[in-house]
């Protein structure tokens, strides 16, 4: 059996407080307009990849608990295959989005995907964190998604295994922590000395990149009011995997992936913001992006 992409980044139950006007100070209480529970973390990437038409598996262990029982069926309904063992507890994140930012509190028991589970799927691509490079099987394209925890853990010292990575994707705040650089462009160049493709997201302002040592950038897309930026980076990686899987050029993939991430902020939750292929291709055409390779985008 072979799949287009396996996501090994930890999956979470995201509990999102929708409609907050501000974060409470110590001793204060604030009220949200709604509370929703959705798959988070690597599950957002997996759902995005599946909605873009890629055969997708999620190898991040879910807990044998109520949280895992809740989000497991949600993920499978998206056409994502769940592989590997269950663990005692599911990682959980409380998400508080406010405008262009969000605050999060996370519990993560630290159980990760096994190399054997991923290799058994003969994936074309694997999406992992910086601490998981050893689970990528030979011959698979490795895409690394760097979050706050990995940025702090590997600050100033990229792991040796990063040399086998195809692309690394990181947000500006984390990129500055990871590299010690003063600007996103400087951070992209520093990481680009080790990794062929590096994208540093600037949120609503687009992204800067290092492509085989060449500096590149993409402007942000105006998608209207931002409701929740959670998961935009996760969906950027999903769209990049899609672009390369369908044979799109690197520069076109940079633009299409930036659009996919931008579209996600219009609704609550990262999983909710994963646009379907047909809508995505239509949005790209409306904004003048180069058409995907022939036969792609029927959805």
From TrEMBL:
InterPro entries: PfkB_dom, Ribokinase-like. SUPFAM superfamilies: Ribokinase-like. The keyword Nuclease does not apply. Gene3D superfamilies: 3.40.1190.20. Coiled coil: none annotated. The keyword Kinase applies. Residues 154-268 form the Carbohydrate kinase PfkB domain. Keywords: Kinase, Transferase. One of its GO terms (molecular function) is kinase activity. Pfam families: PfkB. PANTHER family: RIBOKINASE, SUGAR KINASE. This is PfkB family carbohydrate kinase.
């Amino acid at each position: 059996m072979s799949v287009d992409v396996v996501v090994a980044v930890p999956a979470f139950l995201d509990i999102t407080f929708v409609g907050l006007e501000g974060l409470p100070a110590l001793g204060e209480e604030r009220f949200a307009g709604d509370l929703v529970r959705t798959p988070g973390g690597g599950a957002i990437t997996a759902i995005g990849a599946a909605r873009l038409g890629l055969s997708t598996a999620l190898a991040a262990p879910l807990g044998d608990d109520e949280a895992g029982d809740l989000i497991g069926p949600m993920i499978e309904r998206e056409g994502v295959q769940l592989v590997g063992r269950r663990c005692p507890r599911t990682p959980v994140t409380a998400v508080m989005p406010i405008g262009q930012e969000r605050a999060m509190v996370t519990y993560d028991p630290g159980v990760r995907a096994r190399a054997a589970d991923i290799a058994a799927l003969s994936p074309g691509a694997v999406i992992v964190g910086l601490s998981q490079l050893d689970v990528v099987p030979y011959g698979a394209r490795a895409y690394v998604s760097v979050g706050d925890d990995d940025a702090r853990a590997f600050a100033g010292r990229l792991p040796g295994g990063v040399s086998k990575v195809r692309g690394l994707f990181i947000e500006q705040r984390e990129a500055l922590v990871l590299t010690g650089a003063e600007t996103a462009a400087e951070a992209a160049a520093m990481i680009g000395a080790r990794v062929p493709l590096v994208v540093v997201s600037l949120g609503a302002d687009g992204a800067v990149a290092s492509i085989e040592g060449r500096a590149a950038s993409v402007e942000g897309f105006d998608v209207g009011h931002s409701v929740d930026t959670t998961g935009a980076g996760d969906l950027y990686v999903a769209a990049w995997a899609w672009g390369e899987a369908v044979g799109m050029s690197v520069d076109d993939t940079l633009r299409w992936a930036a659009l996919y991430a931008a579209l996600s902020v219009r609704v609550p939750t990262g999983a909710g913001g994963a646009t379907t292929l047909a809508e995505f291709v239509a949005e790209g055409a409306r904004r003048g992006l180069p058409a995907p390779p022939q036969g792609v985008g029927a959805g």
